[in-house]
Amino acid sequence: MVWATNSIVTKVSDMKILARDKSDHSPIELTLNHKLPSYKWRLDDNLIKSEEDINRYKELTKEFFKINTQEGMKTQIIWDTYKAVIRGYLIQQKIRHKKQKDKRIKEIGTEIDRMEIQLKMNPKDKITQEQLKALKKEKDHMELENIAKKLKFIRQDYFENANRPGAWLARKIRRKRQKQLITKIKGKDRIYTKDEEIIEEFHQFFNQLYKGKHLDYPKIAQYLGKQKLEKITEIQRELLNKEITEEEIKKTIKLLKGNKAPGPDGFPASFYKTFQDVLAAQLKTIMNQILQGQEIPDSWRVADIIIIPKENSDPLEVKNYRPISLLNLDYKIFTGVLAERFKNFLNSWISEEQTGFLPGRKMGDNIRCILDIIEYYDKNHQKELALLSIDAEKAFDNLNWGFFKLLFKEIDIGYQFSSAIDKIYESQRARVIINGQTSKEIKIEKGTRQGCPLSPLIFIFSIEILLKNINEDKELKGARIKQKDYKLRAFADDVICIIEEPRKNIQRWIYKLEEFGELAGFYLNKKKTKILTKNISRPNQERLQKCAGIAVTFKLRYLGIWLTHKNAHLLENNYHVKWKEISKDLKKWANIKISLLGRIALIKMNVLPKLLYLFQNLPIIRSAKIFSTWNKEILKFVWKGKRPRIKYLTMTDSKSRGGLGLPNLRIYFEASALSWVLDWALLKNEKLLDLEGSDLRRGWHAYIGYDKRAIEKGFGDHFVRSSIIKVWEKYKPYLYRKIPM
Q1: Among 70, 107, 249, 358, which residue is least crowded by beta carbons within 10 Å?
Q2: How is the chain split into domains, by residue range?
Q3: Contact 639, 645 (CB under 8 A)
C-alpha cells in the first residue's frame, strides 16, 4: 500500500512491487509522469503602485495608440496588440526590477559585512554606526515587497485578520484539505485516474454540451409571434441603443471587484482602475464600433473554464461539475455597460413573477407566495393543488442563441443593441482548466457564460416567454383567488408551477414546458423535477405521478427552503435541520485556536447568514425558547465551554457602544418579521398582499394600526401572519399608535 497526496495520485504512470532484498517487506516503485502546471501570466499589482511607474505606463499607452491609430487599421486588432505589448513590457519590467533589487540587496549585504568588521575594530565610530543603520533600513525596505507577499503565511496575518470576518477566518474553519484536485472521473467504460485522461473526458463532455443544435428558425419565429409580446417603447429603445460614453465605462470599471481571478489575458481589475483615464477613450471607440456592427476583439471571444463540484452530488460524474467562465475584464466592462442598460428595460418588461437579478425585486417573495398558497388551500381543502418544482438540465449552458436573438428582433429592441448581442454570441471559444492543466480549445455554440454580466439577464429575458405563454393560456388552471391568477413563480431557472386540479391538466402543463424547451433549450429533467401535492389522496397521488412521469414527494426544496404540504411542518424541516448542521459545525470548530473576538467574528460570518436567510423567508418562530437554546450553544462555543465572564447584553451590544458585536439572533429574527409588516403598511405589492389576506374582511392598516385583530380572530389562523403580528405587537408601543390613512 502507498499513501500519497491527491496531487501525486493522478501523476502515477507505473507502479511495481520489487523483490524483498533488504527487509521482510517488499519495496514499491512508483513512476511519476510529472508535468508542470500550465503557466498563466497575471499582472503583479506591485508593478503599478508607484506614481513613477504609473506615469511611465500611461505615457507608453498614449504613445502606442498615437503611433498605431491610423486609417485602415482595425481598432479591435490595435486593442489586442496593445494588451500584448503592455503585457510584454510589464513582464520585462518585473524581470528588470527583480535583477536590480537582487543586485542592490547583494551590494548592501557586502557593505554591511564590511562595516561590521570595521565596527569591531572601532566600536565607538558614530559615523559607521549611522551608515550601518541606514543600510539595514534600506535593505529592510527593499525586502518589504517580498515580505508583504508572505504575510498571509506568518504570524502577523493572524493578528490582522483573526478577529474579523473574512477569507482568513474562512480558511481557518474549513476542513484541512489539499487544493481541490480531481483524482478520478467515471468514463463510459471505466474510471479514469490519469491527468490527461481526466482532462480529455471533461473536454469531450463540454465540447458536446456546447455544440449547437439545428434550430428551426421559422418555428421559433412562429412561436414568438403567437405570444403578443409587448414592443419596446421609443424612449427605451433610445436608451438601449445610444452611444456608449466614457462616464458609463468608468462607472462600470469602478464596480469591478478586486481580488478576483482575471481572464486569459491576465489583466486584473486594478489595471483598468489605475489606467482608466487613458484607456476609457479607446474602449469607448471599440464599443461604439461594435454597436454599429463591427467585430469584437478576438480576445473577447475566449474564456478559461474552471469547474466547481455541485453540492451533494457524485464527484465521479462529469455532469456534476458547474462551469464558471473566467472572462477578460475589458469584455466584462463592455457587457457590464450593456447589462446596466438592459436591466433598466427588463425591470418594466418582465412580470412580477420573476424576482431574479433585477433591482427592487426580492427572491423571498417567491417563497412568501408559495406559503400563502399552501395556507389558502389548507382552508379550502375541497380544491386539489400541485406544486411542480422544475429542474432544467444545464439551463444556462443549453440556452439556444438563435432563440434570444430572434426574441430581441421580435420586440424591436434596436439595431445597435441587437448588433452587439449578435457579435458577442458568435464564434466563442474556451479551454477547461483541470488540476492546473489546460484542455484543448472548445468551440461554444450555445449557452450563456456564467461569469458574464449579461448572462443572467438574457436568461430571464428568454424564460419570460415561458411565463407569458403559461399565464395567457386559459386552459392551464392555476390558483385563482380574489379575481387574480397565481400560476407560477421564477428565480432564474428555479421555476415552480402552481397547478389546480392537476390530475386533469398536468399533461398540458408539461407539454407547454417541453414545447418551450425544445425551441429555447430549456430541457425538463424529469428525474429531478418534483411534485408536492395538497388535498390529494394517496391513490390519486400515485395516479398523478404515473400520468406526469414525475415523482410526487412529501416535501420539496425550493430556493433553499424545504416546502411541505402543511406550513406547520416548516419549523421542523428548516430551522431544526439547519440548527443541527450549525451545532455540528460548532463542535467541530471548538478546538480551533482563535481568540474570543475571532469566535464572535466566526458566528457573524458563518452562523448568522444561514439563519438570517431563514428569518427573512420563514418568519414563523413563535416561542422565545428556541433562541435561548441557540444562545446557550453559541456562548458555549464562544467561551470554549467555560462560564461566560461578560454579560450577554454587553456582548451583543454594538462595538461603537463598547460591546463585542455578538449577533443577537432574536433581534435579527424580529427585524426580518417587521419587514413583512412594512409591506403590509406600504401596500406596494398588491397581488401578493391580496393573496396573503385573502380571508380577511378589512384592509391591512386595520390590523396593524387600529387593533381590529382583537375583533377578527381569524387573522391569527394564518401560520405566518400569526407569528409576524406577535412581533409587531411587541414593538408597536414604541412606534406611532396609528398609521395615517
Answers
A1: 70
A2: 1-34, 199-244+295-564, 568-734
A3: yes
